[in-house]
């Protein structure tokens, strides 16, 4: 079974992002970048399936600028076999990412795609579902457990009321939630080894797709900041405030 | 313009967030059709017909919609999509699961989790863990949106919409519903409760959450948690508040043993009044709290319970 994992280069989740000077977009100058945390979880899950003898090969795909090679190398250092970068400086919408990934799936004859449920920068939570639609495959989003046997994937999903379990016929798409696993750290020897693993860079034009954006960013702004309030000395004082001043109790 | 809304329901009743989504649709303007797809969902359809602003309730009652599988739901929605200018779903696990699948089938984009309607094609949403609000204009012929419930007031319930049965069972046979392992909960729903009391890693273990529950039950509050508390196995995943969990905006939010990471704040900072109980005076939660008590929660929670 061949697994494709998709990884995204995003701003480090610990950095506070602000608008640029003319509020036309965010200011990402010199901002620290990292792999989307959900993509680390997808990578870990794929590697575990390979270690369990269920997957034969783990291919890692990123679609982004040249520096996205760093995130592919991180996946390779964790244990993925080879990488593909579709290089573009454009910020693509999930629909276009899904269209490009669908092409890679066809070329590589993939049986299972693992990707993050969302990226920590834009929170779109769309790419996996869109990819499943384009391929007409089954989808399991928000996975917290994945079990593969006999061409079927049994997936436990984190939903609003608790957990839901569904079964998919492979090939299929699974998007990973926080509780699926705890990603490993790559060891130094594995980081060195990953430098020699194959990584193919493909220009985006090669795919011949119409990737016109479907929405226009008109403006960005910082949200209103809340002011720090009062530190109180006792529970009685607190209840007095909540009852009398605020009327919320 | 005619708008289709995918209702959030459990077959027997509607979820409150459906009402917030209808308000968003009302702000866009036009007739509103509300789709109830499920199995034995007549009761939910009856409730839906009473919502003000809804023109028609479309009921698709079939075994294949049990569990709201994305593939079958998307096929059903596709069968009617061409009639609409906008398709909206609440920004819930179901809405986020289904709507992007419909979008790709229609070859259009989705705007996720909108927090305001500026015009029929322009919307705001929050990105970068709530640090940026972006205004986006959709260029697609059909606009697909998921709606953040806490950003829109709930629609009234004194309407009388026409109920129309939708025939056809779209069973794509790509996935199979096995079961739901729902958390039984007598308390109000986290996303619509007037008061929420949440615990973090400072609670130390799952048993200690009973201290929060006792306070919650005195004031009719829902109980939430941080990712750290869920990851540590103290409480189930459906209690997670934050960027990657549930978004809440109650009248009163009480954060207990929570540091106040931006990913947690992204899920609760629109609350009207925020109270923080934390033993570390430097904890970032105090920067957004209206009232803070710097103390050991194991002393303060029992005091709070007794005083209420
Ligand atoms: C991509 C991504 C997504 C995330 N999504 C979410 C999300 O949706 N929701 C979320 O909550 N987090 C999320 N996080 C995690 C977030 O960054 C924080 O790690 C998390 O919120 C911390 O939880 P906490 O406040 O419970 O724990 P900690 O940060 O460990 O804070 C515990 C607090 O308890 C206090 N405390 C300890 N003992 C006591 C005591 N006896 N009395 C009083 N106070 C005490 C401490 O002073 C401390 O401030 C996400 C992170 C990433 C990277």
What does this structure look like?
The complex is a heterodimer of chains A (249) and B (308). Chain A has a single domain, classed as HUPs (Rossmann fold, 3-Layer(aba) Sandwich). Chain A is built from 6 helices and 15 strands. In chain A, strand 9 and strand 10 form a beta hairpin. The mean pLDDT of chain A is 97. In chain B, helix 3 packs across helix 4 and helix 5 packs parallel to helix 8. The model of chain B has no long low-confidence stretch (mean pLDDT 97). With 308 residues, chain B is α/β, with parallel strands linked by helices. Chain B contains 8 helices and 15 strands. Chain B has a 9-stranded mixed beta sheet with strand order 7-6-5-8-4-1-2-3-9, with helices on both faces. At the A-B interface, strand 3, helix 3, helix 4, strand 9 and strand 10 of A face helix 3, helix 4, strand 5, strand 6 and strand 7 of B. Flavin-adenine dinucleotide (FAD) sits at the interface of chains B and A.
CATH class of chain A: Alpha Beta
Rg of chain B, alpha carbons:
20 Å
Overall mean pLDDT of chain A: 97
Mean pLDDT of chain B: 97
Number of helices of chain B: 8
Which small compounds were modeled alongside the protein?
A: flavin-adenine dinucleotide
* N-to-C order of helices and strands of chain A: EEEEEHEHEHEHEEEEHEEEH
Number of domains of chain A: 1
The largest β sheet of chain A comes out as:
9 strands, mixed
Strand order of the largest sheet of chain A: 11-10-9-12-8-1-6-7-13
């Amino acid at each position: 079974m061949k697994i494709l994992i998709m990884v995204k280069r995003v701003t480090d989740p610990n950095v506070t992002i602000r608008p640029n000077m003319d509020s036309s977009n965010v200011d990402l100058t010199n901002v620290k970048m990292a792999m989307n945390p959900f993509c680390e979880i997808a990578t870990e899950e794929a590697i575990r399936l390979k270690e369990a003898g269920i997957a034969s090969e783990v291919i890692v795909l990123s679609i982004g600028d040249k520096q996205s090679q760093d995130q592919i190398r991180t996946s390779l250092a964790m244990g993925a076999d080879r990488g593909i970068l579709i290089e573009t400086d454009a910020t693509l919408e999930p629909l276009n990412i899904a269209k490009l990934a669908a092409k890679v799936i066809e070329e590589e004859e993939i049986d299972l795609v693992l990707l993050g449920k969302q990226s920590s920068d834009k929170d779109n939570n769309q790419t996996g579902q869109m990819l499943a639609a384009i391929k007409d495959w089954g989808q399991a989003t928000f996975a917290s457990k994945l079990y593969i046997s006999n061409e079927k994937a049994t997936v436990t999903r984190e939903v609003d009321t608790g957990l839901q379990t569904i079964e998919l016929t492979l090939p299929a798409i699974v998007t990973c939630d926080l509780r699926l696993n705890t990603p490993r750290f790559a060891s130094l020897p594995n980081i060195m080894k990953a430098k020699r693993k194959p990584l193919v860079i493909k220009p985006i034009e090669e795919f011949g797709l119409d990737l016109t954006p479907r929405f226009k960013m008109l403006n960005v702004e910082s949200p209103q900041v809340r002011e720090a309030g009062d530190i109180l000395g006792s529970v009685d004082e607190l209840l007095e405030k909540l009852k009398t001043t605020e009327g919320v109790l | 313009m005619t708008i289709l809304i995918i209702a959030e329901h459990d077959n027997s009743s509607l979820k409150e967030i459906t009402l917030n989504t209808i308000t968003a649709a009302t702000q866009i303007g036009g007739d509103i059709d509300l789709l109830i797809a499920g199995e034995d969902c007549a009761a939910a359809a009856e409730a839906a017909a009473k919502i003000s602003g809804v023109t028609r309730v479309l009921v698709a009652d079939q075994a294949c919609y049990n569990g709201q599988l994305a593939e079958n739901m998307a096929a059903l929605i596709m069968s009617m999509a061409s009639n609409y200018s906008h398709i909206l779903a609440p920004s819930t696990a179901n809405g986020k699961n289904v709507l992007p699948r419909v979008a790709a089938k229609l070859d259009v984009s989705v705007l996720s989790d909108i927090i305001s309607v500026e015009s029929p094609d322009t919307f705001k949403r929050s990105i970068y863990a709530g640090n940026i609000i972006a205004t986006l204009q959709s260029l697609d012929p059909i606009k697909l949106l998921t709606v953040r419930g806490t950003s829109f007031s709930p629609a009234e319930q004194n309407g009388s919409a026409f109920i129309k049965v939708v025939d056809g069972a779209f069973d794509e046979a790509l996935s199979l519903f096995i079961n739901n392992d729902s958390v039984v909960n007598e308390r109000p729903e986290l996303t619509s409760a007037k008061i929420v009391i949440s615990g973090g890693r400072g609670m130390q273990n799952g048993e200690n959450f009973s201290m929060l529950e006792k306070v919650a039950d005195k004031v009719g509050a829902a109980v939430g948690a941080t990712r750290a508390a869920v990851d540590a196995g103290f409480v189930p995943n459906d209690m997670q508040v934050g960027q990657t969990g549930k978004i809440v905006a109650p009248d009163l939010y009480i954060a207990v043993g929570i540091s106040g990471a931006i990913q947690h704040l992204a899920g609760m900072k629109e609350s009207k009044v925020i109270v923080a109980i934390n033993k570390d005076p430097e904890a970032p939660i105090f920067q957004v709290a209206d009232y803070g008590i710097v103390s050991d929660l194991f002393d303060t929670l029992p005091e709070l319970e007794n005083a209420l």
